[in-house]
């Protein structure tokens, strides 16, 4: 059985979790936080989450894990068969990761954990998010899913990246990212209604208290 290492507050962990649940794959969750313990580094070389343990060995990096799941597990396909359409999905995944999730992540200490960030970080993050949303507006389809008529892995990246970025943008920059990206609010609401996504959300809420305690103790 596959073992998924991570914790329910991690958005990248939740992307993998949603994929496994949507495909109805049997798996075991192992709660672990990013760490540098030697035994964990043996399966996750950077000590990050998520990490997927298979019968052949371990895999890290979210996009790699999703590719493995798609190639080895039955159930609904979340990549198109057409090579160009498949590449466009991967393009959206990279845009969401690099131009939405990563700039917003730089602001998480202040928005979610009571810390503070520098004015330079704030300025750079706002500029990056504005450019990222503009790029998505050119690339995304929202018909009704981000890449077209079928749900893909790009939607998993979207649901667990855009919402957090929207919270960052609203609190720090008074920006309404959903209003800047027509169709995004409707897709977020639609994805949130899926039973698997509701289960992920419930687990996130249940795990938040422990995560905040651990973060405060550092």
What is the highest CATH level, the class of the largest domain?
A: Mainly Alpha
So how many helices? 11
Strand order of the largest sheet: 2-1-3-4
CATH level 3 topology of the largest domain:
Glutathione S-transferase Yfyf (Class Pi), Chain A, domain 2
Fold and architecture overview:
It is a single chain. A four-stranded mixed beta sheet has the order 2-1-3-4, covered by helices on one side. The radius of gyration is 17 Å and the shape is globular. The chain has 218 residues and is an alpha+beta fold. It is 60% helix and 7% strand. It starts with a strand and ends with a helix. α1 (11-22) packs parallel to α3 (62-72). It folds into two domains: 2-76, 3-Layer(aba) Sandwich (Glutaredoxin); 83-192, Glutathione S-transferase Yfyf (Class Pi), Chain A, domain 2. The model has no long low-confidence stretch (mean pLDDT 96).
Q: Nutshell version of this structure?
A:
With 218 residues, the protein is of the alpha+beta class. The protein has helices at residues 11-22, 38-41, 62-72, 83-105, 108-112, 119-139, 153-159, 162-173, 177-180, 184-192, 195-217, and strands at 2-6, 27-31, 51-53, 58-60.
Secondary structure elements and pairings:
Elements: E1 2-6, H1 11-22, E2 27-31, H2 38-41, E3 51-53, E4 58-60, H3 62-72, H4 83-105, H5 108-112, H6 119-139, H7 153-159, H8 162-173, H9 177-180, H10 184-192, H11 195-217
Parallel strand pairs: 1-2
Antiparallel strand pairs: 1-3, 3-4
Helix pairs in contact: 1-3, 1-7, 4-6, 4-7, 4-8
């Amino acid at each position: 059985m596959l073992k998924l290492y991570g914790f329910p507050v991690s958005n990248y962990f939740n992307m993998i979790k949603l994929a496994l649940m949507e495909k109805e794959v049997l798996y075991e969750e192992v709660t672990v936080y990013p760490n540098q313990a030697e035994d964990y580094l043996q399966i996750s070389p950077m000590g990050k989450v998520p990490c997927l343990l298979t019968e052949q060995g371990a895999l890290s990096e979210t996009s790699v894990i999703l590719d493995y799941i798609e190639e080895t597990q039955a159930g609904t396909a979340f990549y198109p068969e057409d090579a160009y359409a498949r590449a466009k999905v991967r393009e959206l995944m990279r845009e969401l990761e690099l131009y939405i999730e990563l700039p917003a992540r730089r602001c998480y200490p202040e928005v979610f954990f009571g810390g503070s960030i520098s004015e330079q970080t704030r300025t750079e993050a706002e500029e990056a998010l504005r450019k990222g949303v503009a790029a998505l507006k050119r690339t995304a389809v929202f018909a009704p899913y981000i890449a077209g008529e079928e749900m893909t892995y790009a939607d998993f990246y979207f649901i667990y990246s855009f919402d957090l970025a929207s919270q960052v943008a609203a609190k720090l920059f008074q920006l309404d990212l959903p209003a800047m990206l027509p169709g995004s609010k409707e897709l977020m609401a639609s994805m949130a209604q899926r039973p698997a996504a509701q289960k992920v959300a419930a687990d996130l809420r249940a795990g938040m208290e422990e995560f905040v305690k651990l973060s405060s103790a550092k």
